[in-house]
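L-ascorbate metabolism protein UlaG (Beta-lactamase superfamily)
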Amino acid sequence: MKEETAAIQYIGQVGFILRRNGFTVAIDPYLTDSVDRLVSEPADFWKRNYPPPVQPGSLTDIDLVLITHEHLDHMDPETLLAIADASPRCRIAAPRICIPMLREVDIEEHRLVALKHGAPMLCESGLIIRPIPAWHEAREVDSDGWDRFLGYMLEWDGFTIYHAGDTLATEQLITILNTFDIDVGMLPINGRDLFRERAGVVGNMNAREAAALAWEVKMDMVVPLHFDMYPNNSEGISGFVEELYTKYRGLKYHIFQPGETLVYYKNSPHHSSRI
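C-alpha cells:
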C-alpha cells in the first residue's frame, strides 16, 4: 500500500506550515506581537505566552498563505509582509472581505486570491483547497454569498487536512464535514463565555464540543488549537484531554509544542513521528 506523508509544523495560536510534494502552505501565520502592541481593549488582556517560534523573514519556501479571517492573530500584516518579501512566489488567499485590507497594507495585487465556499482552489502538487464556512460565533455571508469566516479542507492526493479557523460546532458544519474522510482535523478549543463576550472577544467551540465533533465526523487525528498563546482567551488543554480519555478512546490526537514539526504517515504502522 502506498505510504502518504505530510510534514505539519505548528507556529502558534492556530498557525501551521504544511509541506508536501515540494509545496508549502502556511495557514494563519501570526509571528509577531502585533496583537499585544496594537489591541488595547480589554486593558492588559493580550499578552503573548511565548515568543514567535519562527521568524517570518526566514520562511523562504512558502508557496501559499491561507487566511481564515481578518482578526489580527489570524491575518497579521507584519507577518504577511515579511513572508511575502522572503518568498517572492508566495500567494495569499483569504475570504473576499480580507482582500482590500491586504491591498491597504501593500500586499501586491497579483498575489491575492479571494476564496468562496463552493469554489475550490487548485494548486500545484495535486493540492485542492476547499473553503468551508465557519461560525465565529455566527456565520456571516454577504449578499453575494461570500463568507466572512472560513475554514479550509486541503485534499492532497488522498491525504485530507481540515483547518477549522475560528468556529463553533454546528449541525450545518457537521453535515459538511461528514462528506469528507478527514485524516487530520485542527479545531479551536478556547470556548466562549459571557465575560469575554462583554469585552468584545468573539469565541469558538470549547474542548468538549471539539472532542465530540472530531469523534462524530470520524477524524483520524485531532489537533487542538487556540488555547496556548493568550491565557486570557483560553480554557486550557486539560479538559480536552480528559474528554478524549473518558469518552472517545481510540481517537488519536496530538498537542503541539510551538515550532514542533510532526510527520504524519497515512497507511503506515508508524503513523506519526516528530522532527
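The CA atoms of residues 91 and 177 lie 26 Å apart.
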